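Q: What would this chain look like folded?
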Amino acid sequence: MPRSKRWLALLAVGLVPLVVLALPHRIDLYDEGIQLTGALLVAAGEVPHRDFYANYGPAQFYLLAALIRLFGAKYLLLRVLDAVIRVLTAGSAALLARTLGVAAGPAFAAGAGSLIFLTAYGQPGYPVIPAAGLAMASVALTARQRPFAAGVVAAIAGLFRYDIAAALLVAYIVCMVLASGGLRMVAAFVAGFGVVAGAYALVMLPLGAWPGFHFDSFDYPVHVYAAARHLPPPGAALIAADPGAALYYVPWLVLCAAAWKAWSWRRHTGRLLALAVTAIFCAKAVIRADIWQINGAFAPASVLAALLWQESAPSRRRWLAGAAALGLLAPIVMVAGRLAAPGLPVLPQDLRAAAHLVDAQCPAGARIYVGQTQHRRIFANDVAFYFFAQRLPATHWYHFDPGLQNSAAVQEAMIAEYTASPPCMIVEDDVFANVVEPNDSARDSGEVALDNWIASHYQPAGTFGGIVVLAAREASPSGPRHGLP
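A: My prediction, written as structure tokens:
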């Protein structure tokens, strides 16, 4: 290995613990919980879509499940895996910039800026980030005239986010045609993409996962998601309260600036694809327009910014550098603040105590359900509780999305599951009960079938702050209701 590459490898390894410490110190009970509990299910032999609802691709579940099997179910595994992915994604941005002809200095700045943004803003375990890293690696392979490998890597990105793969496939074909890449290049890319997609289909179809895959990836996103999760772009009031929210517009500004170069880049497949990839990850944040949704666009936008700097007149470069420094100011301050008071996320005491009760009362292998005190209005639920209690969900519909667990059809399905195999305990955690957004997640469906079933079959066994643990009426443990015995 060349000396320069050895230094880069050492730098990457050294950055991982720093990123772990600089990630948000608060445990994200919903988004992190989806990955943690999904990995537990996969480690137990269950299959996404067939055995549990999953609106992400399976790759992150299986990666984390492999670590769980090797090292045990430890929360820190997700943070370390996530830090490695962020460092690699930033490295992918720097590599792509160099491949597209950017000088070493601006390319390094693109990678560093990407890592700062991704560390400051991005839910741990968010599958969009590895998808972005793989998408950029695919562009670099295309620019190096390796379309088959590029297709393989683009399809692997889709195993983290299906929608990204579909958009990448269309974007690559269009960009290659526009850049006169030739039918041979297009055919090689599609062949590489098809190898991975075909292998995945051949695995999933015999397992009986297709109906769930279709619902999770097409039916719900197309018919419900937009209305249930829509958020408008940050306005003046939100930015005044949280100036960091303005960074939502940074990738869009870079994208618009680079779009002016599209005509001059029309014969350069790699640069057109870098533009297209940035547009794809910006579009990901159109429906739910906030900085956490657009974080996948930061890295490819950094590559575009480096390209713009490289191709700008020397007199303009100081202004571009100043704008980049200003854009990085807020995330640098955020990351520096976390590193100044380093620490790892601490489980809230109420959740820890409730999980201890469940662990004491439910034998290993028993399943539980984590919901809310009411299921008429749904925003999210404490999915992480399953992981910290080390108990698997008793339902296919273990993580909440508006329009699902508060619908009549899904509540009927859940009641049928619980009637056939009652949960050992039910946990009602209203941590998200007061979250109200300007979309359909704020609507009360009026469906009370699940609430009535729970009330008739379970009773309180312990209360821990806003968490109530319920036991079956005929098997409710003795002892005080509040706190542990």
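The beta strands are 368-371, 425-429, 458-464, 467-472.
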